[in-house]
Amino acid sequence: MDRLREKLSNLKLEAEDWQNKYEELKNEKKLLEEENIKLEHEVTRLTTNNERLENEISTLEETVDTHKQSLQTADKDASENDVLREKVDKLEQQLEDTENELREVSEKLNNADINVDNMQRKLESAEVENSELENKYAELEAKYEETKKELDEMIKSLEEF
C-alpha cells in the first residue's frame, strides 16, 4: 500500500515536471516566434535597402556614363581647350568620387546580401528548432497523457482495493 502511495506520489511529481517542461517549451516557442517575426522584418528591411542601393548603383553608373561622354565631347573644340580642361578635371574628380561611391555602395550591397543570408540561416535554424520543439512537446504531451491514464488507473484500483 505504501509502495503504491509512493509510486502515486512519484507519478504526481513526474506529471508536475512534465507540466513545467510543457510551460517552458511553450514560452520558448513564443520567444522563437517573436524572434522569427523580428528576423522577417529585418530581412524585409535589408531587401528594401538592397533594392535602394541597386537603384543608386544604376543611377551612379548612368552618371559615370554621362561623365565619360562629356569627357569625349570635351576634346572636340580646341578653342575652348582651357575651359574644357578645367571641366575635364572636374568631371574626372566627379568620376573618381562616383567610382569610390560606387565601390562603397557595392560593399554595402555585399554586406547587406551577407546579412540577408545570415538572417535567412538564423530563420531556418529557428524554424527547425521550433519544429523540433513542437515534436518534443507532442511527445511530452503523449507521455503526460499516458502517465495521467496510468495514475487514474492506479487510483481506481486503489479505490477498488
From TrEMBL:
Pfam families: Tropomyosin (PF00261). This is Tropomyosin-2. Keywords: Coiled coil. Gene3D superfamilies: 1.20.5.340. Residues 1-161 form a coiled coil.
